[in-house]
Design goal:
about 120 residues, mainly alpha, elongated
Length: about 120
């Protein structure tokens, strides 16, 4: 069971659920006819959970253009330095990313080397 579209999860999370589920079908189903029939059922499943049709179709189309071999390949992760910043999601939160980036340069004003080094990492 997947989250309802009206949940408080960010849109990016809701999109990735659809995409990853469709990609899972591509990985598991080798017969193209069965794969496309399964995608139609998956599309209906998400639409029944109030996902907008255009968003569902967009996510499914990305996977339709993918071969099973491509779907089985591991995706490369970015290799830049990242400091995880984890908060509980709440619709009423401001755009934390913008705030962090706005004040990130203040880290360089610190007298502590360990704090200055943080500036080189992407939050």
């Amino acid at each position: 069971m997947h989250v309802h579209f009206t949940s408080s999860n960010p849109l990016s999370c809701k999109r990735s659920i659809q995409y990853s589920q469709a990609k899972r079908y591509r990985r598991l189903i080798s017969d193209d006819d069965n794969f496309h029939q399964s995608l139609l059922k998956l599309q209906q499943y998400f639409e029944d959970r109030n996902y907008p049709r255009n968003i569902v179709i967009d996510c499914i189309n990305k996977v339709c253009n993918m071969s099973q071999k491509d779907a089985l390949l591991a995706t490369e992760k970015s290799s830049f330095n990242v400091i995880p910043f984890t908060v509980c999601y709440n619709v009423s939160l401001p755009n934390i990313s913008k705030i962090i980036h706005k004040y990130l340069d203040l880290l360089q004003l610190s007298n502590k080397r360990s704090v200055k080094i943080l500036h080189s990492f992407k939050p």
